[in-house]
């Protein structure tokens, strides 16, 4: 793949105005699929979560999942949308190699929810209201695995394998109107919007929202228009971006790529594009189809969805706090400064920090681990932090540090083991023998050895040079591979000096 020329981001924003729209796909965590009784769970052996409906076999008929309807209405309400008195399903016709019946049951002109708004707050404190056009129900497609190429993508692959387990999983697609005025903040706005959507669905309990598993993924539409122009530019759609970090990077990349093409006198092709996490680039997919190309028509085997006002009000009454209200409450409860709380929001880890506090960690400890060491490892691996470790394990790790069982240095080694799949923190501590040594007998033996090598230390301490104890403490820590209780070592050394 030839490397595209990129314009400097600041220069691109001088010449062009970015316009974006986002399509966020949320897989619902119902027990069964959208239109069949097949199990809806992640990680099953390929092609085992299937029924004749999933495979589109002759004579099989879809039946709507009632729980998926309730979840979709709840999500629409949380997005500030109006709920349609009547909505219907349609067949979206396209060549779907990962849909056995070769069409997708979706919603087109009559979605379940429409015209809402989501508030997003940036690190600068700037508030952006993202207009929602619609949230509609559909079924997910299956999963293709491309074999034989160097990248895992279809380009260069020798053959592809299809797993229909995901085909038919309940999905809500949230589509924004075109968003103007993002300017230099556009990449951050896109990331934070997806983060807010993730917080909403987790708060509702309707999705696992694991981006690395595809439970929540984003299609990012980006176009540029010359400064002063009222005509929208040609957009590209970067498909299935599956981490918050990647959403921001992909949008920034497309702004720079498109700006360079336009500045060179070229034109933008309306197409889908693939995001490559390893190289930080997008590549061309297929020419982007418009709605007419999908030949939508009403799904003849399903009746319209007509929720009662009583159901809608029941679901409205059960809504959790709006994200911005929750953010302000948690900030106060945790006693964080604006900068500390923004640090969490910018990292997209509020849900993880909150769950870690709920599991027994202090807010400061939860923030430190998630935005510090865990975020560092996640950046190294190019994944989202929540894919590495659970909130429960982070809380357990923080408790071990608080109890004095681990130092921060040892805790990082334990975290490494947890991420590597060696078990829960205490199991890693036991298996690797990483607990802090507080036993006076073992510490005194190590102190005596260190003092034998530095016999003048005790005299220096007696002469008032207490800082001389640091040399002994350092030697003891080194001898005990960082596992000595440094505070207790200091106490014992000072006691020796008084003797």
Q: Number of helical segments? A: 16
Overall strand count: 14
Lateral arrangement of strands in the main beta sheet = 2-5-6-9-1-10-11-12-13
Which stretches are low in confidence, meaning pLDDT under 50 for 5 or more residues running? none
Instruction: Characterize the biggest β-sheet.
Output: 9 strands, mixed
Whole-number count of domains = 3
Distance between the termini: 73 Å
Structural class of the helices, strands and pairings? alpha+beta
Q: On the 0-100 scale, what is the average pLDDT?
A: 88
Give the overall shape, derived from the CA principal axes. Answer: elongated
Beta-strand percentage range: 15-25%
- Range of helix content: 25-40%
C-alpha-based Rg, rounded: 28 Å
* H/E topology pattern: HEHEEEEEEEEHEEHEEEHHHHHHHHHHHH
Keywords: ATP-binding, Ligase, Nucleotide-binding, Protein biosynthesis, Transferase
Enzyme class: ligase
Subunit structure: Heterotrimer of A, B and C subunits.
EC number: 6.3.5.-
What does this structure look like?
It is an enzyme of class 6 (ligase). Heterotrimer of A, B and C subunits. It catalyses: L-glutamyl-tRNA(Gln) + L-glutamine + ATP + H2O = L-glutaminyl-tRNA(Gln) + L-glutamate + ADP + phosphate + H(+); L-aspartyl-tRNA(Asn) + L-glutamine + ATP + H2O = L-asparaginyl-tRNA(Asn) + L-glutamate + ADP + phosphate + 2 H(+). Its EC number is 6.3.5.-. This is Aspartyl/glutamyl-tRNA(Asn/Gln) amidotransferase subunit B. The protein is of the alpha+beta class and 499 residues long. The chain folds into three domains: 305 residues, no CATH class; 112 residues, no CATH class; 59 residues, Arc Repressor Mutant, subunit A, CATH 1.10.10.410. It is 39% helix and 19% strand. It has 16 helices and 14 strands. A nine-stranded mixed sheet has the order 2-5-6-9-1-10-11-12-13. The model has no long low-confidence stretch (mean pLDDT 88).
